[in-house]
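Figure 6 in text form: structure in, sequence out.
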């Protein structure tokens, strides 16, 4: 499981980095062409779509790395068994949410096949919106890995070396 998680995380990292590079190149080209007086008609629309894709796929990467924003201070004060139970329930709720989001995304994607991008009419909106079911599935895989760890855990994990907020501020 550790090797799968590491490989999965590494693939998502590479994809997110690739999206960041493509977005940076696209924005740079847009600025250069606009400065030269020959604006690219597709620049704004493609940049906003790339940013949305970066957000969705970056969220999947954050799920693998357990790097989403949280407020763990209250839960960390609970006894280990209660903390574990709360974490398992939270994982189930998160998985259910992304299963619903992915199902709705998969349902709506074929509906959008007849629509196209405004500035690039050869690209159907179903391709643009495919990020929703795909990233939902990627997040579910990451959350299932964490849920498996929680179910298998018999004692609290070793401290990650981080400090709680009040300790970090002092």
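Output sequence:
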């Amino acid at each position: 499981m550790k090797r799968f998680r590491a490989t999965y995380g590494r693939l998502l990292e590479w994809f997110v980095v690739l999206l960041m590079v493509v977005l940076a190149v696209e924005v740079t080209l847009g600025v250069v062409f606009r400065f030269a007086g020959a604006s690219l008609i597709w620049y704004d629309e493609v940049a906003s779509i790339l940013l949305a894709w970066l957000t969705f796929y970056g969220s999947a990467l954050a799920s693998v790395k357990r790097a989403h924003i949280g407020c763990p201070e209250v839960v960390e004060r609970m006894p280990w068994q209660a903390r574990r139970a709360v974490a398992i329930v939270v994982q189930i709720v998160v998985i259910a949410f992304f299963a619903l989001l992915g199902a709705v995304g998969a349902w709506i994607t074929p509906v959008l096949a007849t629509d196209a991008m405004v500035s690039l009419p050869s690209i159907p909106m179903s391709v643009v919106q495919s990020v929703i079911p795909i990233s939902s599935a990627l997040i579910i895989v990451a959350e299932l890995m964490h849920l498996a760890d929680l179910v298998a855990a018999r004692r609290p994990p070793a401290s990650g070396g981080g400090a709680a907020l009040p300790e970090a501020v002092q």
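Caption detail: The chain has a mean pLDDT of 88.
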